[in-house]
Write a structure and sequence with these properties.
The complex is a heterodimer of chains A (about 230) and B (about 500). Chain A has about 230 residues and is mainly α. Chain A is built from nine helices and one strand. Chain A has a single domain, classed as Transmembrane di-heme cytochromes, Chain C (Fumarate Reductase Cytochrome B subunit), CATH 1.20.950.20. In chain A, helix 1 packs parallel to helix 9, helix 2 packs antiparallel against helix 4 and helix 4 runs antiparallel to helix 6. Chain A is globular. Chain A starts with a helix and ends in a 6-residue tail after the last strand. The mean pLDDT of chain A is about 95. Chain B has about 500 residues and is α+β, with helices and mostly antiparallel strands. Chain B has 24 helices and 15 strands. Chain B is globular and about 70 Å long. About 0% of the residues of chain B have low confidence. Classes of the chains: A mainly alpha (about 230), B alpha+beta (about 500).
């Protein structure tokens, strides 16, 4: 069972994540978008979207720091586990709260605005609620579990497991004794990643940084693809 | 110098009767789909009025077009970095309610309702929610000045002095489509680079595959002529009916115009001067100076060098748009002060006198027309009345001259305006007789230059234009190379 949960399932999801994106990008550009609904409702969106997006961006960088930088690096820098823990919990809470509040506003907006209820697909709604689950679990881990229950050092178990997955040396044993809330968070995120390529979340890859450097005007010959 | 050809349009407001046929045929052709109900790529507004969407001309709220910032051209809604920071929420986006909430009627009720005391009625229902709604605004709410005594005060073209004259009611119709600008701010606002201007005819299009739903184009366009399809989540706009234009037919709005007010033709311009021209002090005059004389041997030589073919050059020489805009200077751009260099131009309307004619000289009556010169100037020349005044004088002189030809009354005032009799006849033919082939001088598109149809034939079936990997490449040799690898891989 642990082999399935911590090796097979992650690889299934990660493969779907990669192949799904490639497949969709090459076959279905037409629906590849952020699916903005601002034109239908912009008053509630303002707070929800801004809080959530900026929150999740910083959360993302926080995870990169926490998951991919080995513990030894922190040790070498003289950051002891206690200091690291305080820093992680404080920063996690600071960026987590706007993310959660923003997401709750967005969910509220989706479920109460008549115009949006009608035009939200079941899949969109499912992904949104899954995202809410991920953020709620993350907040539970950061605020309640790590803040009050125990200072669990995931850098000794989860981090090597994630890096093992990515370097094709998976080790399911690392995850067996991890607290349940961490396990659940990891599994939900993996599920979300499996659905990612088929959802509106693909707009993550389309952040148009090229806009900063391109010329304002674009000319193209008739009938040509860009 | 880099000469490009632009497909351009002139509409004569002097002839528009406000029948909305253009809007209806456009809608039937392009936007009668879910998600596009509220879009009117072509709409006809009654002026004065705040139009569709509400107050689209007020760029302090809508933030469309370009502004000069330290003598540099910058987007009114903010530059590249501002846009990226606002990508999660565009504070300037015009919501659908500013256009109008699209609706239909429950016509079934007329047939299915039980027998009752009163006539059954079809009530309006929102096409967004299906709910019964009260109609408080629509795409053409101000038709023939309806309610304009209230809304009209928010028309930014009405200045204080004009507002007084406003008590002596005046109105005219303004049909609007996408301007297919030379310096389009919608295009410049698109972070994805999905909007592009076609090299050969200047038509501005949205690549539906590349649009990522960032919705800045809607804000960027000062004419509010880029729309957001709420069902497909993609931007859409007037296509200048490019499938028709490519085969030499006029746009559907022009084709079906009962007043024959529209003219389509080619303008040659120097693409290297676009940014410079858009940033000068007098947007109308400088815009005009951008247009190149298609009879000038130097221009012809350069145009050939830049790949413009003989049939397009000849069309440019016969272009009714060039005649009306440059030769006779009767047509003007709509709001040149937005600095997008719009390419749908307008002939201002003559209007009845306020009082009995008191002027000795017939030409001076332009000052006493119901439509204030300043109002037209605010619309067409960035506030400069002189060019509009000259145009109206020419139109008066032309009427008077033709009256003289047929009825032996009226005056010959052409000379004072620098018009020759043969020019007057030419103008008369263009404005009054207006045969189909004179109004629409549209050379067919040279698709063979952008897609190698012959080489693509038979390689990937009927849909090759969409599926062909080779079609975007420059040379025939490169295409052959890729095709060979395709064959090897069994495609």
């Amino acid at each position: 069972m642990s082999q399935f949960l911590w090796v097979v399932f992650p690889y299934l999801m990660l493969t779907t994540f990669v192949v799904g994106h490639l497949y969709r990008y090459h076959t279905d550009q037409y629906t590849w978008s952020a699916k903005s609904s601002e034109i239908l409702e912009k008053r509630i969106l303002k707070w929800g979207s801004l809080l959530f997006h900026y929150g999740i961006i910083f959360t993302f960088f926080g995870h990169v720091t926490g998951l991919f930088i080995p513990k030894e690096v922190f040790d070498a820098l003289g950051i002891d586990p206690h200091l690291y823990h305080i820093f992680a919990v404080t920063m996690g809470t600071l960026v987590g709260i706007p993310t959660l509040v923003g997401l709750l506003i967005l969910v509220y907006r989706r479920m109460t605005t008549p115009r949006l209820i009608l035009h939200t697909s079941n899949f969109d709604l499912f992904v949104l609620l899954l995202l809410l689950a991920v953020v709620l679990e993350g907040m539970y881990i950061t605020v309640i579990h790590s803040g009050f229950l125990e200072a669990y050092d995931y850098r000794e178990t989860i981090n090597p497991w994630v890096r093992g997955l990515l370097t094709l040396k998976p080790d399911a044993n690392l995850m067996v004794n991890v607290p349940f809330s961490f396990q659940l968070h990891a599994l939900t995120v993996l599920l979300l990643m499996g659905l990612w390529p088929f959802s509106r979340l693909v707009h993550f890859w389309s952040l148009p940084l090229i806009y900063l450097t391109r010329s304002y005007l674009i000319y193209r010959k008739a009938g040509q693809k860009n | 110098m880099k000469i490009r050809a632009q497909m351009a349009m002139v509409m004569s407001m002097d002839k528009c009767i406000g029948c909305h046929t253009c809007s209806v045929t456009c809608k039937n052709t392009w936007t009668n789909r879910p998600g596009a109900e509220y879009m009117w790529w072509n709409n006809v507004e009654t002026k004065p009025g705040i139009g569709y969407p509400k107050e689209w001309e007020n760029q302090e709220t809508h933030k469309g077009g370009w502004i000069l910032k330290n003598n540099k051209l910058e987007l009114k809604a903010g530059g590249r970095l501002t846009k990226l920071l606002q990508i999660f929420y565009n504070p300037d986006l015009t919501p659908i309610d500013e256009f109008y909430e699209p609706w239909t009627y429950n016509y079934e009720n007329l047939i299915n309702r039980k027998l009752g005391k009163y006539q059954p009625v079809a009530t309006p229902h929102s096409q967004l929610t299906g709910e019964r709604i009260e109609l408080k605004w629509g795409p053409n709410w101000e038709d023939d000045l309806a309610g304009v005594h209230i809304t009209g005060k928010r028309d930014p073209n009405l200045e204080e002095a004009i507002k007084l004259a406003y008590e002596q009611v005046f109105m005219f119709y303004l049909p609007r489509i996408c301007e297919h600008c030379l310096n389009p701010s919608c295009l410049a606002s698109c972070p994805s680079g999905a909007i592009y201007k076609r090299e050969e005819d200047g038509i501005v299009l949205v690549d539906q595959d590349m649009c990522r739903s960032w919705r800045f184009c809607m804000t960027g366009c000062p004419y509010k002529k880029v729309y957001f399809n709420w069902k497909t989540h993609k931007a859409e706009k007037c296509t200048f009916c490019y499938p028709r234009i490519e085969v030499g037919l006029p746009t559907i709005c022009s084709e079906t115009c009962v007043g024959r007010i529209r003219y389509i033709g080619i303008i040659l311009y120097d693409a290297n001067q676009v940014a410079k021209t858009a940033s000068t002090e007098d947007p109308y005059q400088d815009h005009l100076s951008l247009f190149l004389n298609p009879h000038d041997p130097k221009v012809i030589e350069q145009a050939r060098h830049d790949g413009i073919t003989q049939d397009w050059l000849e069309a440019a020489q016969r272009s009714p748009v060039y005649k009306l805009a440059v030769d006779y200077q009767l047509a003007f751009p709509l709001h040149p002060e937005y600095r997008t260099l719009p390419m749908v131009w307008y002939i201002p309307p003559l209007s009845p006198m306020i009082n009995a004619v008191s002027q000795e000289n017939l030409l001076d009556t332009v000052e006493e027309m119901r439509i204030p010169l300043k109002y037209l100037a605010n619309l067409l020349t960035g506030g400069k009345t002189e060019p509009v005044k000259q145009a109206l004088k020419k139109m008066i002189a032309l009427r008077s001259y033709m009256q003289k030809q047929y009825y032996d009354q009226g005056e010959d005032l052409l000379e004072s305006l620098g018009l020759k009799p043969e020019e007057a006849k030419d103008l008369y033919n263009l404005l009054a007789i207006a045969k189909y082939s004179d109004r629409y001088v549209i050379p067919t598109n040279h698709r063979e230059h952008s897609v190698d149809l012959h080489a693509a034939q038979g390689t990937v079936g009927l849909e090759f234009q969409e599926a062909c990997l080779t079609c975007g490449l420059e040379t025939y040799e490169e295409q052959n190379l890729i095709r060979k690898t395709e064959v090897q891989h069994g495609r």
